[in-house]
Amino acid sequence: MRRARVAFSGVLAALLLGGCMIGPDYVRPQVDVPAAYKEGTPSAPLAAAATSGAAASSTWTRATPADAAARGPWWTRFGDAQLCALESRVDVSNQTVQKAAAQWREARAMVASAHADWFPTIGASTAASNLHDSANVIGHQQTAGKTFQDYSVVADATWEPDLWGRVAHENDAARANEQASAADLQSVRLAMQSELAVDYFNLRTLDATQRLLDQTLSDYRQALDLTTSRYRIGISSQADVEQARTQLQATEAQDLDLGVARAQYEHAIATLIGQPASTFTLPPAAADFTPPAIPPGVPSQLLERRPDIAAAERRVAAANDQIGIAESAFFPNLVLSAAGGLESSALSNWLMAPSRVWSLGPALAGTLFDGGRRRAETDRAKAQYDASVADYRQTVLAAFQQVEDNLAALRILQQETTQQDAAVQSAEKTLQLELEQYRIGTVNYLDVVTAQNTALTNERLAVDLRRREMDASVDLVKALGGIW
């Protein structure tokens, strides 16, 4: 009983000391957040939200990937049924998303594994053996040269109280890494969804360019027929006919060349939705190239909306806990152990009370000298923390840059599209005038060819500008975190 009281006193002392937490408290790193986007001019309703958001930025809470804000389906804002059907398959069949989901489940299992360290480890064993003792060992007179049996069944338990907070830090770090992994999953999902949207609009741009070239080829065939007719009646030269034929053949080559890029985009879309490229076909179709209105919100909201920012911040928290784990190694560990069971040399009395065996007692162990290893590990943990802080701040800076880049791109591309549409109209008017003058013989066919090239170039530029607008819209959605 006295020994039991001593052991109980040790357990009580350990529990009382268990509240001592070694290591720095976590404080979210500070970042510079502008009051508004330089390239964004919010509307009246959004301006009110910006005012309230700026006022709340000083009390901003930690961004976590488990927030209630939905991250989709943002692609419905583009109003394309085919795109919506394809996007719905990304989350289910895309293998990059599936890999990220598996990594998140792995991180979640690590949380459960770290949580198990709060509890004692209990084991049991049973054994039956024949033993033969040496006859030439001094002190074994009773068993010397004899063979006897030994039967035992033992249960044991060990528990290490968290005196210095090591287990608490390990649990906090595991939870932070799990949250970071969940945010990584959101980032991968958003990246695959936006990549699919960009590939889809690029493919539809090629379809639009194909229709443009098909119409142009029809016009060029009419021009070739015109020059041929004029040549036959002697009012045009054979050179005019050959120029018209060259123009037609060169445009036919451009039309065919579009098939290479279109096939590659089609194959890329198949891979993104988890389908073999050989079994996937996306027929040509028209698409609406009018970018939707995308409210950017205020910069302080970006810290909560971007999953990669949340992941970087959670990794800072995990690195902070690693410092506490490293510092706890400077203090001794207390292990409480207990064992009990039955042991006998005969089965007949194995389960009787005199066969019982037990042990109970604490063990305190610590490192007195390790050549500076623990200090080095602590310095390494602090350096990793500083690196994670730099990663977090760089992620925030990159996020603001991406939003500003795409806001600027949309603003400038909108102006450029307006100017290019005017250029297309002027080029078409010039071409019609040159054709009329060619019919009456006031200009040669080289002027018509030049006008045709100018018109086609401007029309293709107009189509490509609309593609760039759609790409910038998708990239802006991605830069904002995919949330409205």
From TrEMBL:
Topological type in the membrane: Lipid-anchor
UniProt keyword Chloroplast, yes or no: no
Major location (coarse): membrane
Subcellular location: Cell membrane
UniProt xrefs under SUPFAM superfamilies: Outer membrane efflux proteins (OEP) (SSF56954)
Superkingdom in the source lineage: Bacteria
Keyword set, alphabetical order: Lipoprotein, Membrane, Palmitate, Transmembrane, Transmembrane beta strand
Entry's family note: Belongs to the outer membrane factor (OMF) (TC 1.B.17) family.
PANTHER family: BLR4455 PROTEIN, OUTER MEMBRANE CATION EFFLUX PROTEIN
UniProt protein name: Efflux transporter outer membrane subunit
